[in-house]
Write a structure and sequence with these properties.
Elements (H helix, E strand, L loop, with lengths): L12 E4 L4 E3 L7 E6 L6 H12 L1 H6 L2 E7 L3 H11 L4 E4 L4 H5 L3 E6 L2 E6 L2 E5 L5 E5 L7 H11 L1
Parallel strand pairs: 3-4, 4-5
Antiparallel strand pairs: 1-2, 1-5, 3-8, 6-7, 8-9
């Protein structure tokens, strides 16, 4: 089941960095950038996080929250944040419920082995919690800026 423009943010609660618990319904009232990435402290995921970090003040000024999501645990997220000085929350979707709801799991192949993992994807929600833009199969270079540009147009 695809998650598409106009769909509403799922009502899920996830563990998050800094010992937080985040109920997605509580995020309504502000725009939300939810970016999914495969794994903490890997080159592409680190660069993507750094790009969102470097533009974070502009996202905040445009009225949006930024949150990263992977299946990594909270401890890994806390280390990732500390290492790269990320000013935003990272959500731990260890059970894959949010990944399933937003349809980001894809069959992948590495070194001849096939596995199911997160397809780098970003979702932009309006303050009412409705999806207004989606990027799938994201290439990191220039992506955070493209999301910021879309937010400013929204």
């Amino acid at each position: 089941m695809a998650f598409e423009i106009g769909d509403t943010l799922p009502a899920l609660t996830l563990k998050a960095s800094g010992g937080q618990t985040v109920n997605l319904e509580d995020l309504k009232g502000t725009s939300l950038v939810l970016y999914f990435y495969p794994k903490d402290n890997t080159p592409g995921c680190t660069q993507e996080g750094q790009d969102f970090r470097d533009l974070y003040a502009q996202f905040k000024a445009a009225g949006a929250q930024v949150m990263g999501v992977s299946k990594d645990g909270v401890k890994a997220h806390d280390n990732f944040i500390a290492k790269h000085d990320f000013p935003f929350t990272l959500l731990s979707d260890a059970d894959g419920a949010l990944c399933a709801a937003l349809d980001v799991m894809r069959e992948k192949s590495m070194y001849g082995k096939t596995y199911v993992g997160i397809d780098r994807s970003t979702f932009l929600f309006n303050p009412q919690g409705q999806l207004i833009e989606v990027w799938r199969g994201v290439k990191v270079k220039g992506h955070a800026q493209a999301v910021l540009d879309a937010l400013k147009r929204a």
